[in-house]
Amino acid sequence: MKRAPAGLILAALTFIVSTSAQERPPEPDGYRMEDYRTPVPATLAGARVLGTAEAETIWRSKAGVFIDVMPRAPKPANLPQGTVWRDKPRLNIPGSVWLPDTGYGRLAAVTEDYLQRGLGRATAGNVSTMVVVYCQADCWMSWNAAKRIQTYGYVNVAWYPEGTDGWERAGLELTEAQPEPR
Questions:
Q1: Structural domains of the chain, with CATH
Q2: Biggest CA-to-CA distance, the chain
Q3: Which residues contact 149 (CB under 8 A, 6 or more apart)?
Q4: Which H helix or E strand runs over 161?
Q5: Rounded CA gap, 109 and 169, in Å?
Q6: What is the pLDDT of residue 101?
Q7: How does pLDDT run across 116-154, given as a tens digit for each residue?
């Protein structure tokens, strides 16, 4: 079997990386309102964007609080009486606060209050605490939530766009989570 020349491999990798970067959409002016599982921007104005290595460093040093905004599937309304319903387990970054359903483009007042109260508890009310927001890779929910959290006056917001997918790919531990009580 013949080996491909190193230059050819490097050129192919460069093409793949540059193509992926080009496919990233620009930041919208407002929140993403639909199609939440599609490519996300490479940036979020006013927030620090983290890769997995940087997120791990922050996590290991306990330099920030990690907020998971992955939605929680609701119990179907039309289940036959007597059907046992079990929530799908959520695995997140150990020590994270799971505030489900807080990354949609439009939030009901009760959900927005839930997000603000959850952040307040997680940061002990200190708006200077680093808040690392994540969900899964290519999930606009974390982008929306990080953008929204800035409007609450938090000044040290970081967005981890690779989320639990990137964390798991790096071989880092995930633990089963329960949502923060409403």
A1: 47-73+89-182 (3.40.250.10)
A2: 64
A3: 67, 115, 119, 131, 133, 157
A4: none
A5: 36
A6: 96
A7: 999 999 999 999 999 999 999 999 999 999 999 999 999
d(CA 145, CA 55): 17
- Give the CA angle between residues 17, 67, 179 to the nearest 5°: 125
For 74-112, b where at least 16 C-beta lie within 10 A, e where not — what string?
eeeeeeeeeeeeeeeebebbeebbbbbbbbbbebeeebe
What is the mean predicted confidence (pLDDT) over 90-109?
A: 97
What is the three-class DSSP state of 89?
Answer: coil
Look up residue 68 and give its two tokens.
């998971």
- Arithmetic mean of pLDDT, 81-89: 81
**How many residues make up the chain in this entry?**
182
Helix and strand counts by DSSP (H, E) for the chain: 5, 7
**Taking the alpha carbons of 65, 68, 69, 75 in that order, is the dihedral positive or negative?**
negative
Closest CA to 46 of 147, 124, 118: 147
As a whole number of angstroms, the distance between CA 45 and CA 77 comes to: 39
